[in-house]
Design brief:
It is built from 17 helices and twelve strands.
């Protein structure tokens, strides 16, 4: 759900900003009257009165303080809203299925967290406060002018109205311009996010010049759209300057025709300055509003994407016990109509050609993917009714793509565990998994692991997932085909560990674990209507 714009105390912050803008308007009006009194004193060759001078100085200080306070409050308001959006997007991401997340380009996902958040922050931090400033300070200017000399209003108000209409009508084009810039910027972000991680390989494939031309082509389109938007916005910002000049001429002309004193004319000219900045900022308000509107539509669409069915406070599985698994007319493309039962404690070899659905089946069992139809039960409980915490504690997955955040090796080996074990236990499990050589060459558990484990080999990442499994007490062990990247000693270590586990095991045939470990074999075949062949193996040997 999209966070409320003025929720979480932001309405109160906005009221505070409005109060500060009103105080700024009052101080600006007082400064205009003080200016009139001082100019009258100068024109009459009198000594300068102390009170108007003090009032002018205090007004200037108050205006400065109010602007700083309003801008700070507005920025805090914008940052708080951006934080709420960030939480909403991340929570949505954690609730999406892995297949849906993998279907999104990395650049577009990062844009939600960078470009769009800037648009949200700027609308609350700059757009709304500046809109309020215009609403308060432009009428304040007219009020001060009318107080000084009523005819001033009759000539200045039409000029202000013309400027506001020009800015309003011209601003109608900004949303489409903003969407065009945003779309082209997103395309470049997605292209760069896709290509930078494999830039050396692209160079080796001889694609450097081709990719450079692609970047140039997209960048030229982005630059063209950005310049068009900036030019249009700057034209709108220049309208108040033209109107200010015309208004100043009108004030002087009225003053001359009506034989007004110099102080009144100077005060009126000073009052015109009150409206100049907020009127100029209105073009920026349109720009921020257009960016906010485009980002809001995309963010709403992102938050409405399908989520995995989760059961808050759902059912719990019995811990430290092997799980039975049943597939009932399970539909999970490319798998359709899968029916099979795996008894608790069984060890199943999962076979099938590439693309048969083995990895997606394991994703679904781990609670990371959503079924398109049918059901999966664990110990008789529907998978959709089980809590994420229960699935995390009862099911482990071994493969070359475990979730790894940048940090120490200790953090990588224990990520996802309810409680971090002591270093002795971690080192013992790492030794069993075959990470001895890595621990000897690195700074033990303080070794820095890059994001995603990029500075580790595929086999080392598999062993990290093995250590996590060893430090858990799972009821179901899933061994993905990517675990085949283990070396011979790693395969043997995995086989030895599996043989001693009181858990149900499902392992991809590609991992090449010893056949005597298994008692069942499930073969997924897209060519067959049933999509599965389940056979019982002749014998199973436990080490």
């Amino acid at each position: 759900m999209m966070p409320e714009l003025l929720g979480q105390g932001r309405r109160r912050m906005l009221i505070g900003v409005f109060a500060l803008i009103c105080a700024e308007g009052a101080a600006a009006g007082a400064a205009a009257f003080a200016t009139r009194m001082l100019f009258n004193a100068l024109h009459g060759q009198q000594s300068l009165p102390t009170q108007p001078m003090a009032l002018l100085a205090i007004s200037g200080l108050l205006i400065a303080l109010c602007r700083v306070a309003a801008r700070t409050r507005g920025e805090r308001m914008g940052q708080h809203y951006a934080l709420d959006i960030r939480h909403a997007l991340f929570n949505q991401g954690t609730a999406m299925s892995v297949s849906d997340v993998s279907a999104r380009r990395a650049g577009y996902m990062s844009l939600r967290f960078v470009g769009d958040l800037t648009a949200f922050r700027n609308w609350l931090g700059l757009g709304l406060p500046r809109l309020l400033a215009a609403v308060v300070l432009i009428p304040t200017t007219l009020l001060v002018l009318g107080w000084m000399h009523l005819p001033f209003i009759w000539v200045v108000a039409p000029l202000f109205l013309a400027a506001l209409m020009a800015i309003g009508l011209g601003g109608l084009k900004l949303p489409s311009m903003q969407r065009r810039v945003r779309s082209r910027r997103a395309a470049i972000a997605a292209d760069m996010a896709e290509r930078m991680p494999i830039a050396p390989e692209l160079g080796q494939l001889g694609r450097r010049s081709l990719e450079a031309k692609r970047i140039d082509r997209r960048s030229r389109r982005l630059i063209s759209a950005a310049l068009t938007r900036v030019r249009h916005a700057e034209v709108l910002k220049s309208v108040p300057d033209m109107v200010a000049g015309c208004s100043a001429v009108a004030v002087i002309w009225i003053g001359s025709r009506h034989n007004l004193d110099t102080g009144t004319i100077a005060g009126a000219l000073s009052a015109l300055g009150i409206a100049l900045k907020p009127m100029r900022d209105l073009a920026g308000v349109w720009n921020h509003g257009a960016a906010f509107s485009a980002a809001h539509k995309k963010c709403v669409a992102a938050l409405q994407r399908p989520r995995r069915r989760e059961a808050p406070g759902g059912r719990q599985l019995a811990r430290n016990r092997p799980l039975s698994v049943s597939f009932v007319d399970t539909v999970l493309p490319p798998i359709s109509g899968l029916n099979a039962r795996i008894s608790a404690g069984s060890r199943v070899k999962l076979a099938g050609a590439n693309g048969a659905g083995k990895s997606r089946l394991m994703n679904a069992l781990a609670g990371l993917d959503t079924l398109d139809g049918g059901a999966v039960t664990l110990n008789g409980e529907n998978l959709a009714d089980l809590s994420q915490g229960s699935l995390r504690r009862s099911i482990v997955r071994i493969g070359s793509n475990p979730a790894i955040l940048k940090g120490t090796l200790r953090k990588a080996l224990t990520l996802g565990l309810d409680r971090r074990p002591d270093d002795g236990r971690i080192l013992k499990a790492a030794g069993k998994a075959g990470l001895d050589a890595m621990l000897e060459s690195a700074d033990d558990l303080e070794y820095t692991v890059a994001e995603g484990g990029r500075n580790l080999s595929a086999g080392q990442r598999v062993k990290i997932s093995m250590v996590r499994a060893m430090l858990s007490r799972p009821g179901l062990i899933l061994i993905d085909s990517s675990a085949a990247q283990l070396d011979r000693s790693g395969i043997q270590a995995l086989a030895d560990w599996v043989a001693h586990q009181n858990a149900t095991v499902m392992a991809s045939e590609q991992v090449n674990l010893p056949s005597e470990l298994f008692d069942q074999k499930i073969t997924l075949d897209q060519r067959q209507k049933t999509s599965v062949t389940q056979t019982t193996l002749p014998m199973r040997m436990d080490a």
